[in-house]
Amino acid sequence: MDYDFSFFLVVATLVTGIIWGGYLLVLKSRGEVFDEEKEPWFVEYAHSFFPVVLIVLLLRSFIAEPFRIPSASMMPTLLIGDFILVNKFAYGIRLPVINKKVIELNEPKRGDIVVFRYPKDPAVDYIKRVIGLPGDRVAYYDKKLHINGVPINQVSLGRYQGVGQGEDMTGNEHLLEDLTGVEHSILIRNGAASAEGVYIVPKGSYFVMGDNRDNSNDSRYWGTVPEENLVGKAFFIWMSWDWQHKGVGFDRIGTVLK
């Protein structure tokens, strides 16, 4: 069980709902008619907050949840300060707090940008790109990917010019990677050491990497992501605010992620 914001939303919904519903039942048992002006103060608060917290709980648990990008690990796709929306039903419907899947829907595809609970500390949310699917053989050598023996094509786009809090990424090589049909940008810091090796993705798990390949704590270092740790699929940037440097990034608002 996760004692996160969803837990407190569930508790708030239950408490306000019980107070409000209980008050109505008491009135009914007494044969009295509901009158807002005669509500006790605590019932008035419950009456006001119950529909609000219920709607927020339903939207956040089953439709979409907002997240803020705190690090440079997904640059250049996602910048520090981007605010994204995550589709909560893309990979099935899960009950809040206990995270039990009750409705099976789609499975992650290679190239999806996913938010998940970090396997080493499930209280922390991570965001990475799905590279390897269950059963895949992923190899990473000389800053190049091979999936099931097939080299992944990369095309250089020149040197990257960082902005805002990601300005220190300036000079990294900017490449367009074709992840078996999903084209996306990545950054490589030539000369920097990075984890290399061959990884077999176990059943029910996913191999994930950041687009900023030499500045990402991902599956190369701590292993794969179990399916039950998936939170949802990132699909939209609804706000971008780098408060330390450039302010609001109006050019990024409305970006559809791929």
TrEMBL record:
<keyword id="KW-0812">Transmembrane</keyword>
<dbReference type="GO" id="GO:0009003">
    <property type="term" value="F:signal peptidase activity"/>
</dbReference>
<dbReference type="InterPro" id="IPR000223">
    <property type="entry name" value="Pept_S26A_signal_pept_1"/>
</dbReference>
<feature type="transmembrane region" description="Helical">
    <location>
        <begin position="6"/>
        <end position="25"/>
    </location>
</feature>
<keyword id="KW-0472">Membrane</keyword>
<dbReference type="InterPro" id="IPR036286">
    <property type="entry name" value="LexA/Signal_pep-like_sf"/>
</dbReference>
<protein>
    <recommendedName>
        <fullName>Signal peptidase I</fullName>
        <ecNumber>3.4.21.89</ecNumber>
    </recommendedName>
</protein>
<feature type="transmembrane region" description="Helical">
    <location>
        <begin position="45"/>
        <end position="63"/>
    </location>
</feature>
<dbReference type="InterPro" id="IPR019757">
    <property type="entry name" value="Pept_S26A_signal_pept_1_Lys-AS"/>
</dbReference>
<dbReference type="InterPro" id="IPR019533">
    <property type="entry name" value="Peptidase_S26"/>
</dbReference>
<keyword id="KW-0645">Protease</keyword>
<feature type="domain" description="Peptidase S26">
    <location>
        <begin position="43"/>
        <end position="239"/>
    </location>
</feature>
<keyword id="KW-0378">Hydrolase</keyword>
<dbReference type="InterPro" id="IPR019756">
    <property type="entry name" value="Pept_S26A_signal_pept_1_Ser-AS"/>
</dbReference>
<keyword id="KW-1133">Transmembrane helix</keyword>
<dbReference type="Pfam" id="PF10502">
    <property type="entry name" value="Peptidase_S26"/>
</dbReference>
<comment type="similarity">
    <text>Belongs to the peptidase S26 family.</text>
</comment>
<dbReference type="InterPro" id="IPR019758">
    <property type="entry name" value="Pept_S26A_signal_pept_1_CS"/>
</dbReference>
